[in-house]
């Protein structure tokens, strides 16, 4: 069965510090991978998505970047965090096969920038 | 790209009352997915609709996809406290899923 691992679960970082959030998927090959951010009480904002190794699409200009060094690994990074980067970060995967488009989410990382 | 607008943003109901959330798009959607996110949790897939006019039921939940495939609704009959959370609609195109802002449901026991 497929599983998705996202860590850490919570993170408190000072302004100006770097960030690295990692997400890995098991039990599937060539998944579509996504990073979403959810501000408190708000919806899901798509940050990045990837359809293959090294292929990253950025949805919104921001202080973050993403990389996919391996088929089932997706990393969200920042060189210098801003206060506005605080939020709930969710990694997700899907396998787009015909009509099946269900997305599976990781447990999320709650980032607080202080 | 596809955008989906969701209303209302919040809904407070008394336990036993019904609840409906609506998802609308200005463009024709190829599909609609619905997710539920419990407080403090992550979104969990509920169902997908792909056909015009499609209606699907899961116990007290009824999902509809409009005839023009531009809107969808989720209706919960006789809400329970376990229904609390945020309900999201989403649509996927070329492998990319776009989510609505969600409707947060609170239920008074």
Q: What is shown here, in short?
A:
The complex is a heterodimer of chains A (114) and B (109). With 114 residues, chain A is mainly beta.
Mind explaining what this structure looks like?
The complex is a heterodimer of chains A (114) and B (109). Chain A is built from no helices and eleven strands. With 114 residues, chain A is mostly beta strands. Chain A has a single domain (3-113), classed as Immunoglobulin-like (Sandwich). In chain A, strands 2, 4, 5, 6, 9, 10 and 11 form a seven-stranded mixed beta sheet that branches. In chain A, a hairpin with a 6-residue loop joins β4 and β5 (45-52). Chain A is globular, with a radius of gyration of 14 Å. Chain B is an all-beta fold. Chain B has strands at residues 5-7, 10-14, 19-24, 32-37, 44-49, 55-58, 61-65, 71-76, 85-93, 96-99, 103-108. Chain B starts with a strand and ends with a strand. Chain A binds chain B through residues 32, 34, 36, 41-44, 46, 49, 51, 57, 90, 92, 94, 96, 99-108, and chain B through 6, 31, 33, 35, 41-45, 48, 50, 88, 90, 92, 94-102, 104.
Query: What is the succession of H and E elements of chain A?
Result: EEEEEEEEEEE
Dominant shape of chain A: globular
Spell out the CATH superfamily of chain B.
Answer: Immunoglobulins
Overall structural domain count of chain A? 1
Strand content of chain A: over 45%
Radius of gyration of chain A: 14 Å
- Tally the helices of chain A: 0
One letter per element, helices H and strands E, the order of chain B comes to: EEEEEEEEEEE
Number of strands of chain A: 11
Q: What's the architecture of chain A in CATH terms?
A: Sandwich
Question: Uncertain spans of chain B, ≥5 residues at pLDDT below 50?
Answer: none
| Oligomeric status | heterodimer
Low-confidence parts of chain A: none
Find the count of extended strands of chain B (DSSP E, 2+ residues): 11
Give the second-level CATH assignment, the architecture of chain B.
Sandwich
Number of domains of chain B: 1
């Amino acid at each position: 069965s497929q599983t998705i691992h996202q860590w850490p679960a919570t993170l408190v970082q000072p302004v100006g510090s770097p960030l690295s959030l990692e997400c890995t998927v098991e039990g599937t090959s060539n998944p579509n991978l996504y990073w979403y951010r959810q501000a408190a009480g708000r919806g899901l904002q798509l940050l990045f998505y990837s359809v293959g190794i090294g292929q990253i699409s950025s949805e919104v200009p921001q202080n973050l970047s993403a990389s996919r060094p391996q088929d089932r690994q997706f990393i969200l990074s920042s060189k210098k965090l801003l206060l506005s980067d605080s939020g709930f970060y969710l990694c997700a995967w899907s396998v787009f096969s015909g009509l099946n488009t269900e997305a599976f989410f990781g447990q999320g990382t709650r980032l607080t920038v202080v | 790209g596809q955008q989906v607008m969701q209303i209302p943003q919040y809904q407070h109901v008394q336990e036993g009352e019904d609840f409906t959330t609506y998802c609308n798009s200005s463009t024709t959607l190829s599909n609609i997915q619905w997710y539920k996110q419990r407080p403090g949790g992550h979104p969990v897939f509920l169902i997908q609709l792909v056909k015009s006019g499609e209606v699907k039921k899961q116990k007290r939940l009824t999902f509809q996809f409009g005839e023009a495939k531009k809107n969808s609704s989720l209706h919960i009959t006789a809400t329970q406290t376990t229904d609390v959370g945020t309900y999201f609609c989403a649509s996927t195109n070329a492998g990319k899923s776009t989510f609505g802002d969600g409707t947060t449901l609170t239920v008074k026991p």
